[in-house]
Amino acid sequence: MTSRPADPNQTKFVLTEDRIPRAWYNIVADLPVPPSPVLHPGTGQPIGPADLAPLFPMALIGQEVSVEREIEIPEPVRDAYRLYRPSPLFRAHRLERVLDTPAHIYYKYEGASPAGSHKPNTAIAQAFYNKQEGTKRIATETGAGQWGSALAFAAALFDLEVKVYMVRASYDQKPYRRILMETYGASVVASPSPDTNYGRAVLAGHPDSPGSLGIAISEAVEDAAIRDDTKYSLGSVLNHVLLHQTVVGQEAIEQMAMAGEEPDLVIACAGGGSNFAGLTFPFLGQTFRGGRKYRVIAVEPEAAPSLTRGVYAYDFGDTGKLTPLVKMFTLGSDFIPEPIHAGGLRYHGMAPLVSLLKDHGDIEAQAVHQGRAFAAAVAFARAEGIVLAPESSHAIRVAIDEATAAKATGESKVILVNLSGHGHFDLAAYEKYLNGSLEDYEYTPDEAALASLPKVG
Ligand SMILES: Cc1ncc(COP(=O)(O)O)c(C=O)c1O
After folding, report:
1. Is 310 in contact with 446 (CB distance < 8 Å)?
2. Atom of ligand 1 nearest to the CA of 390
3. Is the separation of the CB atoms in 365 and 297 below 8 Å?
């Protein structure tokens, strides 16, 4: 049994460096239903390690298919984690007072990493394994620029070259993210780009394309597939990426114990699903092993609502249809989401592991318009001081909604929310919100994109 802290105003729950987890938690070991196989796009048959070898180092392929509950974190990765881990857990006393809620709100804050988000948790691991297996250069995509910054940072630590295909909408909205990546040593191009066959094909049909994560992934995969010195790296969706993020939830479990509370609700935003998985999988694992049940909510944008309005089907991870087929909630790989400011949430699909849990009823999902997300982020900034990334703003919206509902019912529930990044490079979006020119976009199903879902036996 844990006890409440002696000081009821304690605000930060901080772990020492020796509490950085020693293993990642693999939820596959505890899943209530087995995951669906990943299929080869040509044959429709389950893929094997050899199919993935041109793109990823073998250590990551091994993690992708592992059923071990714990996977040891290599010491050089833990050592790099020391630069910013363990990340702090905060009790949002001031926000609670502003909302006048009986709810207790805790937030795990990943925005204090060097790159500004949770993304280095996997970028460091991926850079390490690539270096270990002799990779010289990594190609990747980035939406908001957070993932590209994280990989550029991690690659600098392990002396690797990086080429980043940055979604055109974000490239134009966030020049400082590009400069940050270049400062770390990466080379960055707007996607669709003239540098790949796929990029050139998209530009031929749509010279003004705002791009999408799906298009940028195709470009980065093509780049890696045709060069011997280059591997591909993905910042979300895949099992091994979600795995690396579980340091977040493992620390949070320990920090909630320091606070002497158990969350009733665990909330996180979900683009490809890695930040959501990072916080929630260790909690869900406890439930699956016979422990306490939590309400777990994934928050996505109304403009790309894969979990709430998509179909659960096999689909490509990218728009160029180069990737293997995975079973996931999808809006169709040809769907191009409107250019909302939460670039990291502009994705047509969702991680297969997160999709499986949604389909099985273990987690809930809610979709939020960006205007309401920014309203919550501004309230949060004025109460707690942190200016959140637009992606994280979606999560704080739902946390505030739940705390407000608790006020109406008088329930004293405990809310834990993962705040994945800071918004210091997103101030143009805040300005739009503040001057009333921020637009909301309704999702209209793209029937052609849904009709072109691959047919799988
Ligand atoms: C700050 C931030 N939060 C959340 C996300 C969403 O990605 P994921 O669902 O993989 O965590 C991103 C993606 O770029 C991001 O930059």
Report:
1. no
2. 1
3. yes
Question: How far apart, in whole angstroms, are the C-alpha atoms of residue 430 and residue 353?
Answer: 33
CA distance 91 to 116: 20
Distance of CA 82 to the CA centre of its chain: 21
Q: What is the position in ligand 1's atom list of the atom closest to the CA of 245?
A: 11
Cβ–Cβ under 8 Å, residues 339 and 234: no
Reference 187, options 140, 238, 136; nearest CA is 140
The closest-lying atom of ligand 1 relative to the alpha carbon of residue 421 is: 1
* Distance (Å) from CA 116 to ligand 1 centroid: 11
Output the CA angle 388-107-240, nearest 5 degrees. 85
Question: Cβ < 6 Å from ligand 1: which residues?
Answer: 117, 143-144, 146-147, 236, 269-276, 344-345, 389, 391-392, 420-421
d(CA 149, CA 277): 21
pLDDT higher than 80, residue 457: no
Mean pLDDT, all residues of the chain = 95
Ligand 1: residue whose CA is nearest its atom 12? 344
* Token pair 């094997």 in the structure block, residue: 48
Who wins on pLDDT, 318 or 148? 148
- Can you say how many angstroms the Cα of residue 196 is from the centroid of all Cα atoms in its chain? 26
If DSSP codes are grouped into helix, strand and coil, which group holds residue 368? Answer: strand
Contact 115, 149 (CB under 8 A): yes
Conformation bin of residue 66: beta by default, left when phi > 0, alpha when psi is -120 to 50 = beta
State yes or no: pLDDT of 147 exceeds 80: yes
Distance from C-alpha of 426 to C-alpha of 391, rounded to nearest angstrom = 10
Summarize pLDDT for 223-272 with one digit per residue, the tens. 999 999 999 999 999 999 999 999 999 999 999 999 999 999 999 999 99
